[in-house]
Amino acid sequence: MSSADTSVRPFHLAIPVSSIARAREFYGDVLGCAEGRSSEQWVDWDFYGHQLVTHLVPESTAATHHNPVDGHAVPVPHFGVVLTMASWRALADRVAAAGIQFVIEPHVRFAGEPGEQATMFFYDFSGNALEFKAFNDLSQLFAS
């Protein structure tokens, strides 16, 4: 698919987690993702229209690096989605209410510049880094 193609297809991502029960609490209860197929070893999630699969890897340890971006140490690797601003704010409130510590607090980065965006980073219980973004102007998603 070229970058000019405007149809977006769902991505599929499989990540390790140390507990299926905790995956259900975090991805289901906190993030609000609907559960699809599952077994004792994995769960499919509707991750905002994309397919996220949490696979049980009891002794998995996430290796994380940080890169500087706009004055913050951004965890690498990370994944997430671009939400509407209202959904982004609601998610930030749910994450905070659940007592999950932000790696990078919800804020607007690149203010007044191309690519201005709201962003937040936090880890799941297994050390997988997540970023959620929102744009007032979605045409700024790939602004340079």
Q: How would you characterize the overall build of this protein?
A:
With 144 residues, this protein is of the alpha+beta class. The chain has one domain (12-140): 2,3-Dihydroxybiphenyl 1,2-Dioxygenase, domain 1 (Roll). It has 2 helices and 10 strands, in the order E-H-E-E-E-E-E-E-H-E-E-E. It has helices at residues 20-30, 85-97; strands at 12-17, 34-38, 42-47, 50-56, 65-69, 72-76, 79-83, 102-109, 117-123, 129-134. Strands 1-4-3-2 form a 4-stranded mixed β-sheet, with helices on one face. The radius of gyration is 16 Å and the shape is globular. The two termini are 21 Å apart.
| Sequence of strands across the biggest β-sheet | 1-4-3-2
In total, the number of strands is 10
Which class best fits the helix and strand makeup?
alpha+beta
First-residue to last-residue Cα separation: 21 Å
Mean pLDDT: 92
Put simply, the count of helices is 2
Organism: Pseudidiomarina piscicola
Domain VOC: 9-135
InterPro entries: Glyas_Bleomycin-R_OHBP_Dase (IPR029068), Glyas_Fos-R_dOase_dom (IPR004360), VOC_core (IPR037523)
Protein name: VOC domain-containing protein
Outline the secondary-structure elements:
Elements: E1 12-17, H1 20-30, E2 34-38, E3 42-47, E4 50-56, E5 65-69, E6 72-76, E7 79-83, H2 85-97, E8 102-109, E9 117-123, E10 129-134
Parallel strand pairs: 1-4, 7-10
Antiparallel strand pairs: 2-3, 3-4, 5-6, 8-9, 9-10
